[in-house]
Specification:
Oligomer: heterodimer
Biased composition (Low complexity) (chain B): 15-28, 211-226, 349-358, 737-748, 832-842
Number of helices of chain B: 45
CATH class of the largest domain in chain A: Mainly Beta
Radius of gyration of chain A: 26 Å
Number of strands of chain B: 9
Strand order of the largest sheet of chain A: 14-15-16-17-29
Largest sheet of chain A: 5 strands, antiparallel
Number of helices of chain A: 6
Largest interface: A-B, 64 and 60 residues
Mean pLDDT of chain A: 91
Distance between the termini of chain B: 52 Å
Pfam families (chain B): Utp14
CATH architecture of the largest domain in chain A: 7 Propeller
Strand order of the largest sheet of chain B: 2-6-3-4-5
Mean pLDDT of chain B: 59
Keywords (chain B): Nucleus, Phosphoprotein
Number of strands of chain A: 29
Radius of gyration of chain B: 60 Å
Strand content of chain B: under 5%
Structural class of chain A: alpha+beta
Subcellular location (chain B): Nucleus, Nucleolus
Biased composition (Acidic residues) (chain B): 58-71, 89-111, 139-190, 265-277, 648-658
Structural class of chain B: mainly alpha
Helix content of chain B: 55-70%
Strand content of chain A: 35-45%
Shape of chain A: globular
């Protein structure tokens, strides 16, 4: 016989801890939840406001360099690691978590360090640097330990080039790296002479970037305003793209191997499909001065660019305008930016000798979140996205306080562009023979593509 | 040299191969005892060289005449000459010569090299090439002293060996070529001669080993035999110093080879094409004519070679210096596109040489010599093999050298360009392999990094499986294996479980079977029963059965009525609906389901009976309408069918029907008229309103009107009665057109008859004849005649006819050929007539004049169609009749608009009233234009014969002009415009700022005499921004637009100012905002699904660049 008794477990109605959340039954009867559009709109507005309230992108400024930081490399196998080279030839390795220098070579190069990169391989702790002193130096944290007196550690190897180097990048898998000077040279880490020379024309190359997905393809940009693609398999250049102004940096999309972005002198970032370079796939226009560096986020969805206008901008790779602008009071011209490999941070090196660490999403906070918290954030994101065209929300979301200089410059630029456009239109209007065809914005900056 | 020949004759490859193998064996066998020296080879070479110059018959004769002593010398010289003159090979050692001589030089595939080779002469010289070499040989031998007989023998043997090698050797073509050497021109002849040769060979054979198999022409032994025979037979001819001899000599040589082969390997009797060819070749021997020809060709060849010499030298120089001279030559030839190969040459010379030897050997004609030969044979074979190897080597070098010789390289710049282009294309291709992956990622709803292995998009299931397999560790694999072995795999377990589930007890099974059997039994029984019942033919039984069924149904209905009145209602409704449907579907013959159902129940039920009668009547009407009873064949069809179908009312006449309908209509009308008087007090509920005077007045007015109408209608009915009386049934059925009715009325028999014939149609145009006056009234005849008449009319004029129904709509369009097209919807073509006389049945949308001219009430104008009530139709009919009467009274023209058969040749022309001239009716009795009865239909095609009366026939035959149509389409536009304007005006007024009068009525306004009305009324002026000034309205100047100024501005902020980029219309954008995202409006699951972000990354996790396994290994 079963005896029934009125009994309630205390666990049913008491909270174990204070933070315990009591489950409430939820009724989704629409009668009980009227005015859904209005309510969600309000939530979206609030979310937008909250986002802006929490938007504190600047995390840390890492000081140590004496001169401006002109080259930077992230370790593809170590999230924490950033190597920077400065104008005075100093090389520093930083720990982003500790926010401090963990290795340094004060006089790594005579003159400016033009490029740094890691040697491929998980176990490899070697890295390379090139400078205007025509040397490639191989370093290792373990092998070339920093002396107590702070003198420059020994290099693992030093390779002499014929020209002052302007950039370096490494192969994804093999111990191969490419340097740029007046030509692109491909080196084996173990050999003192380049294994291949890739030339096309005689101009100075600004920088070289190896594709990390389609690993045998690399691109260089030169002072002759050209962007040249090479292939290691054929050891030959592939195609040359000449733009209206020269390109300062190239970044390959890690998730779309035939896509690369270029930081152009004309204030714009262009993305290209390497197979059809007669037009840019996207033109990202917001900077008000030359773009000095550009880097794809590891997801391939976003871009970060650093500009001579002292700002860092973040972009959706598919949209034409930046989604955010980062600037700091004392930040000078930005020469190098990198998206960290976990897609969460952005590092920028600028003329002011400081390395800056930013959040990739200004209002996002890392750390473990409860499901509810996460859900709330995601819901808010969705709401913002949904109502982003509604004036009020849009205004909140887009509002940025930028330095006066930037604001003025952008206004001036706007006026200039408009007047230029107007002028063109007027010319067109009074031109009998239609000599001024309308060129799409994506083709405007491109002078031509050739394999010849 | 063999190449071109090869092109002329092709042998099956397999045969050749076999031959090769067989002969290779032979050669090896022979190789053991060869004693011939290199010098012999040299001789041969020299002989060749010299042979160039001389191709004289005399020389040949000399050569033939056993002067083989100086062979060595001669040949050497010949070779030298060849080398020097042709190829500029200066320092040829004897050793080199040997190498050159060696037959392996034949190896190359001649076809390729010789493809482009042509001699100075014509193609006819081709066969001479071979001869040339032979001639050279002969020359050489000629020049040299004939001192050494033995040598000759040896030489011949050696050369034989060479040829044997040749056959055996690497070059498949050699065999062919050898065989074809001489038969290119006279191949057919040779074949014809073949048998003859063989027989001769039989006669003269000395070689016993080949005496046996002669008959099969394809057998090698046979051919060999023939060779031998030839060789032996030749000496007889040698003295003739004939070119034929020379060739015979060649043949001999070859035959020797074969003979030796045969002797060495007795079993070598492959039936080979080679041997065939050899035999063919041999067959050439005796033919002097052929030989002469060949000699001539040979001359040509020699000259051609000499002509080509300088070129070769050039080429040689260009070639690889390290290469042997021969090779260089070979290369040079190839590169020149001259497909001459040194090996070929050498081969030829060799063969030529041997030729000479052979000849000499043959002339000796000693059997002793055979032994010598055999001894030398072995030596030479060995030697030859050595040579062959050497030459092979040289060939290889030559080939290499050949490969090395390419066009001068392009300029580096150009080369780079090309390289880049190719490289770019390649890289593009390689990079494009990512496309699918990238596309998939771009289109993905969600991307999760770093776990989102993008390569997965691309990988096949197979690779996935493979990957899965790899991922297992050793232990896991072992466990999996054990599980599999022990039958614990998923699949096995599932099967087992299924089996378990299927298990049932025996009892259960038995029970189930029993049930099944029972079911089957019952089914069978019921089937049987049904069959039996179905067979019963008794009507009585059927009736009883039916009644039973009905009763059962009734009972059921009763039961339902009691138990479930709602259900009952529903069923009744259903029935009613069914009936309605039936009515709609024109099934009104009391044969429908409803009628059948109702038939037994209608006893005493007046309503039902009446309904059924109505149904029948309706059926008649509709039928009439459909088939347009006026018409000919269809009428008869209809009537026949009607009578057939109507069992119960088989004698029901159209007369009766009409009578019935008429009487009923009249009674109804009168009833209505009566009832109308008493109607007023019935409006009890509206008493208050309707009690008012103006209302009553209005009602009275309306009633009066109705009464008048009814009266009119009744009168018409009454008048119709007379018609019926006069005109008989035809009229009553056909609703005779008034003109005809009138004519009938006037007791004109002719007219009546014609009416009967034409079935109420008004026919335009010729072909319609007057009918006999004694036309019968019988339906059948009547129909037939109508038919014939119409046929005549239609056939004679080949016209199209348009039939109009009473409402002026085109019911049918009939073409003259008898096709009748029924229009899906009646098209109105009946315009209001211009004259007021017959303007009764006007069509409101067709003309304005009509509206003006007719005194008819527009409210009464209705187009009749299926949906029109009976009363309407009846009245319309009457009206039309009345109209026609009126018209008739005026002019005597049949202005009927009811059933008019119009002749329209290509199109129907319906003139606008202004344009229209006249109707020329069938009777041609209508004179005046105004009698058109509202329709103007022109007969265009055959207009001449009929339309004489037309005065102002319209130029445009189009019935509906564009203007008409536009007029129709925008008929009521003005009204709409006015309405809109009024509306706008009202709105403007309403929204205009208004002053408010706050004066309270009564307050401060005292009554009484002498009191001034209050002046200062309290009026509140409109506040700023309140209302919209008329002039300030946004739509002030926009005529056809009303802009709403009442939108609350506070809501603006909720609207996007424009449609955002990816969307094209506001609706699209709105669509995205429709469904709320929150968890208040979604289930937990869908909510979490909705809010899932597109790109998810994890903090602290490195996201590596995209990589797929195939791409990784680069």
């Amino acid at each position: 016989m079963k005896v029934k008794a009125l009994s309630r477990s205390t666990t049913e109605f008491t909270r174990e801890t204070k933070s315990d959340i009591q489950k409430l039954p939820r009724n989704i009867d629409p009668e009980l939840h009227p005015l859904e559009r209005a309510r969600e709109y309000k939530r979206a507005l609030n979310a937008a406001k909250v986002e802006r309230m929490f938007a504190k992108p600047f995390l840390a400024g890492l000081s140590g360099h004496i001169d401006g930081i002109y080259s930077m490399a992230k370790n593809p196998w170590d999230l924490d690691n950033i190597i920077t080279g400065s104008g005075d030839g100093e090389l520093r390795m930083w720990s982003l978590t500790a926010q401090e220098t963990i290795w340094r070579a004060p006089e790594a190069h005579r003159g400016i360090v033009k490029g740094v990169c890691n040697v491929p391989g998980n176990e490899s702790d070697r890295f390379l640097s090139v400078g205007t002193d025509k040397t490639v130096k191989v370093w290792s944290r373990s092998e070339s330990a920093v002396a107590a007196d702070g003198t420059t550690p020994e290099t693992v190897a030093t390779y002499n080039g014929k020209h002052a180097f302007s950039g370096i990048d490494h192969h994804r898998h093999r111990p191969i790296f490419a340097t740029s000077s007046s030509l692109v040279e491909v080196w084996d880490v173990e050999r003192s002479e380049p294994v291949a020379n890739l030339t096309w024309g005689a101009d100075t190359i600004n920088t070289v970037a190896m594709n990390q997905a389609e690993v045998n393809v690399l691109a260089s940009c030169g002072t002759d305003r050209s962007i040249i693609l090479y292939d290691l398999r054929t050891s030959s250049p592939l195609a040359k793209l000449v733009m209206a102004l020269s390109t300062n940096a190239i970044s390959w999309n890690p998730m779309e191997p035939f896509v690369f972005a270029t930081a152009n002198e004309d204030h714009n970032v262009y993305t290209f499909d390497m197979r059809r370079m007669d037009h840019a796939t996207n033109v990202l226009r917001d900077h008000v001065s030359a773009v000095m560096d550009v880097d794809y986020s590891p997801t391939g969805q976003e871009l970060v660019s650093g500009s001579y206008d002292r700002t860092v901008r973040l972009w959706n790779a598919s949209s034409g305008h930046s989604r955010d602008i980062y600037h700091a009071k004392r930040m000078q011209r930005v020469f190098c930016v990198k998206y960290t490999l976990d897609n969460k941070y952005v590092v920028s090196g600028s003329d002011d000798s400081n390395l800056r660490l930013w959040r990739a999403r200004a209002s996002e906070r890392v750390g473990i979140k409860s499901n509810r918290e996460r859900a709330t954030i995601e819901y808010a994101e969705k709401l913002k996205d949904r109502f982003k065209y509604v004036p009020e929300v849009r205004k909140v979301l887009r509002q940025r306080n930028v330095p006066t200089m930037i604001k003025k410059a952008s206004q001036t630029k706007q006026v200039m562009l408009q007047s230029r456009k107007r002028k063109e239109e007027n010319q067109r209007k009074h031109d009998k023979h239609d000599t001024k065809p309308r060129v799409p914005e994506r083709r405007k900056a491109i002078l031509g593509v050739t394999t010849k | 040299m063999r190449g071109p020949r090869k092109t002329t004759t092709r042998l099956p490859k397999t045969g050749r191969g076999n031959n090769k193998a067989a002969k290779g064996n032979v050669a090896k066998g022979k190789g053991k005892s060869v004693d011939t020296s290199k010098s012999q080879q040299n001789h041969m070479g020299k002989g060749k060289g010299k042979g160039k110059q001389r191709s004289n018959q005399d020389d040949l004769d000399v050569f033939d005449a056993e002067d083989s002593d100086g062979d060595d010398l001669v040949r050497r010289r010949m070779l030298e000459r060849v080398a020097v003159r042709d190829y500029e090979v200066e320092n040829i050692d004897s050793e080199d010569d040997e190498e050159i001589d060696s037959d392996d030089a034949f190896d190359d595939d001649d076809a390729d090299r010789f493809g482009g080779y042509s001699f100075n002469g014509s193609s006819s010289k081709r066969p001479a090439k071979r001869d040339a070499s032979n001639a050279g040989d002969s020359d050489g031998s000629d020049n040299s002293d004939n001192d050494n007989d033995n040598d000759n023998d040896n030489d011949s043997e050696a050369s034989d060996e060479e040829i044997a090698d040749d056959f055996e050797g690497e070059d498949s073509d050699n065999i062919v070529d050898l065989s074809e050497m001489l038969d290119a021109d006279s191949g057919s002849e040779a074949e014809a001669d073949k048998d003859q040769k063989k027989s001769s060979g039989k006669r003269k054979k000395t070689d016993k080993s080949h005496s046996g198999p002669l008959s099969p022409p394809q057998s090698a032994s046979a051919s060999l035999l023939s060779f031998n025979d030839l060789a032996l037979s030749n000496p007889a001819d040698d003295s003739d110093s004939d070119s034929g001899n020379k060739i015979n000599g060649l043949d001999n040589e070859e035959s020797d080879v074969f003979a030796r082969m045969g002797s060495d390997s007795d079993s070598d009797s492959d039936s080979d094409s080679d041997s065939d060819n050899a035999s063919e070749m041999a067959s050439d021997g005796p033919e002097d004519k052929d030989d002469a020809e060949k000699l001539a060709k040979l001359d040509g060849f020699v000259s051609s070679i000499s002509a080509r010499a300088p070129k070769r030298r050039f080429v040689e120089e260009a070639g690889d210096g390290a290469a042997e001279d021969e090779n260089a030559v070979g290369i040079g030839l190839q590169s020149k596109g001259v497909s001459l190969n040194i090996s070929d040459l050498l081969g030829d010379f060799g063969s030529g040489n041997s030729n000479g030897d052979d000849i000499m050997g043959a002339t000796n004609e000693d059997s002793d010599k055979e032994d010598n030969r055999k001894e030398g044979e072995k030596q030479s074979a060995r030697e030859i093999r050595k040579l062959r190897d050497h030459v092979e080597k040289l060939e290889r070098v030559a080939k290499k050298a050949h490969a090395g010789v390419v066009a001068a390289p392009l300029a580096k710049r150009l080369q780079d360009q090309m390289d880049r282009k190719v490289a770019y294309d390649q890289t593009k291709k390689s990079v494009s392999e990512w496309q699918t992956t990238v596309d998939a990622n771009r289109a993905a709803e969600h991307l999760s990094f770093p776990h989102n292995i993008s390569g997965v998009h691309n990988s096949t299931t197979k690779s996935l499986i493979a990957g899965a397999d790899q991922s297992k560790s050793e232990m896991e694999r072992q466990i999996a294996e054990i599980l599999l072995q022990s039958g614990m795999s998923e699949e096995q377990q599932r099967q087992y479980e299924e089996l378990e589930l299927k298990k049932v007890s025996a009892e259960e099974v038995r029970k189930r079977q029993h049930e099944l059997r029972m079911m089957r039994e019952l089914m069978f029984r019921s089937e049987q029963k049904a069959k039996r019942i179905a067979k019963i033919k008794s009507k009585a039984y059927r009736r009883i059965l039916k009644k039973q069924k009905l009763r059962a149904e009734d009972k059921e209905m009763e039961r339902i009525k009691e138990q479930d009145p709602e259900m009952y209602e529903m069923l009744l409704e259903k029935m009613a609906q069914k009936r309605a449907e039936e009515r709609m579907s024109l099934r009104h013959k009391n044969t429908g389901k409803w009628a059948k159902e109702m038939a037994p129940r209608s006893h005493g039920d007046e309503d039902t009976q009446q309904a059924m009668r109505d149904q029948l009547e309706q059926h008649d009407k509709l039928k009439r309408k459909i088939y347009d009873l006026g018409s000919d064949e269809e009428l008869s069809d209809y009537e026949a069918g009607h009578e057939k179908n109507d069992d119960d009312a088989s004698d029901s006449d159209a007369d009766q029907t009409f009578e019935e309908a008429r009487s009923r209509a009249i009674s109804k009308l009168s009833a209505e008229m009566n009832s109308k008087d008493e109607e007023i007090p019935d409006d009890a509920p509206h008493k208050a309103l309707f009690g008012m005077k103006f209302m009553q007045n209005a009602m009275q007015r309306r009633r009066d009107e109705n009464l008048r109408d009814a009266q009119l209608m009744r009168d018409e009915f009454a008048s119709l009665e007379a018609d019926v009386d006069d005109d008989g049934r035809a009229i009553s059925i056909n609703r005779q057109s008034s003109g005809k009715a009138n004519s009938a009325k006037a007791a004109s028999i002719d007219g009546a008859a014609s009416t009967g014939q034409s079935q109420g149609r008004m026919t335009f145009g010729g072909g319609l004849k007057k009918r006999d006056s004694n036309q019968k009234d019988q339906d059948q005849d009547h129909a037939q005649e109508g038919k014939s008449a119409s046929n005549k009319a239609s056939l004679s004029s080949a016209i199209k006819r348009v039939r109009l129904n009473e409402a002026g709509q085109i019911g049918q369009v009939a073409s003259g050929s008898g096709h009748r097209v029924k229009l899906a919807e009646p098209v109105s073509v009946l315009p209001a007539k211009a004259s007021s006389k017959s303007a009764e049945s006007k069509n409101p949308w067709l003309s304005k004049e009509a509206g003006a001219g007719s005194g008819q009430r527009s409210g009464k104008l209705r187009q009749l169609d299926k949906d029109s009530t009976q009363l309407d139709k009846l009245s319309a009919k009457l009206r039309s009749k009345r109209i026609s009467q009126a018209a008739d009274g005026g002019s005597g023209v049949s202005g009927s608009v009811e059933n008019v058969l119009l002749d329209v040749n290509n199109m129907m022309s319906l003139d606008r009233p202004a344009q229209r001239s006249s109707v020329d009716d069938g009777n041609e009795d209508g004179g005046s234009d105004s009698d058109a009865g509202g329709i103007e239909l022109q007969h265009v095609g055959n207009g001449k014969n009929k339309n004489k009366s037309k005065k102002k026939q319209a130029a445009n035959p189009n019935a509906f002009t564009q203007r008409d149509l536009v007029e129709q389409a925008f008929a009521e536009d003005e009204i709409v415009e006015k309405e809109f304007e009024a509306e706008k005006e009202a709105l403007i007024e309403q929204e205009a700022p208004k002053a408010k009068d706050l004066t309270l009525p009564g307050w401060g306004s005292w009554g009484g005499t002498g009191i001034q009305p209050k002046k200062n009324k309290i009026v509140l002026k409109p506040a700023d921004g309140e209302g919209v000034e008329k002039s300030k309205r946004a739509d002030a100047k926009l005529g056809s637009v009303i802009i709403n100024h009442n939108v609350p501005k506070s809501t603006y902020k909720y609207y996007s100012t424009n449609v955002p980029f990816p969307y094209y219309t506001p609706d699209q954008y709105e669509e995205t905002l429709k469904a709320p995202l929150g968890k208040e409006w979604n289930t937990a699951k869908s909510h979490s699904k909705i809010i899932k972000p597109r790109v998810m990354t994890k903090a602290g996790r490195i996201i590596n660049p995209i990589a797929i396994p195939s791409k990784k290994k680069q």
